[in-house]
């Protein structure tokens, strides 16, 4: 098991890891996706493992069910877990994200390969783009 700094939500039984530098909007994207029906998995930290040879994420026990909502503080939310959820995609919030991509990159997380896309964080359509990224580039 490895503690990994990322926020994460569950959409249709698959985990979406949200990475980026501090202040890039990881928690805000997670919150927007929760508003669209996703389930909180972890905010700013998850536990990675590969129980059946596939990368999975679970809530960190110290922060399970908590998310930082800017200007309001750390608030409790319904959350997934404690069972690990298969990781389908990593999105990195990046102001230098390319405008077009033909395919997701592959990155290692916890020693396991997973698709990765960079998303421009300053868009009202960011939650929709994250869902589309998961649908078109995420592992099944």
Automatic annotation (TrEMBL):
Q: Does the keyword Iron apply?
A: no
Q: Cross-referenced Pfam families, in alphabetical order?
A: Hpr_kinase_C
What InterPro entries does UniProt report for this protein, alphabetically?
Hpr_kin/Pase_C (IPR011104), P-loop_NTPase (IPR027417)
Residue limits of the HPr kinase/phosphorylase C-terminal domain?
7-75
One GO molecular function term of this record is:
kinase activity
Keywords associated with the record: Kinase, Transferase
Q: Does the keyword Kinase apply?
A: yes
Top-rank taxon: Bacteria
Q: What is this protein called?
A: HPr kinase/phosphatase C-terminal domain-containing protein
User: Which species is this UniProt entry from?
Assistant: Novosphingobium pituita
């Amino acid at each position: 098991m490895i503690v990994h700094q990322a926020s994460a939500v569950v959409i249709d039984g698959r985990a979406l890891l949200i990475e980026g530098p501090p202040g890039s909007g990881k928690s805000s994207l997670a919150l927007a996706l929760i508003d669209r029906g996703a389930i909180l998995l972890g905010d700013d930290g998850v536990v990675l493992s590969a129980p059946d040879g596939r990368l999975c994420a679970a809530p960190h026990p110290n922060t399970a069910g908590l998310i930082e909502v800017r200007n309001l503080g750390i608030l409790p939310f319904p959350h997934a877990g404690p069972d690990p959820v298969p990781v389908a995609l990593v999105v990195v919030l990046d102001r230098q994200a390319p405008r077009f991509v033909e395919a997701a990159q592959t990155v290692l997380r916890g020693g396991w390969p997973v698709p990765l896309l960079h998303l421009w964080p300053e868009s009202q359509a960011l939650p929709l783009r994250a869902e589309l990224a998961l649908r078109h580039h995420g592992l099944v």
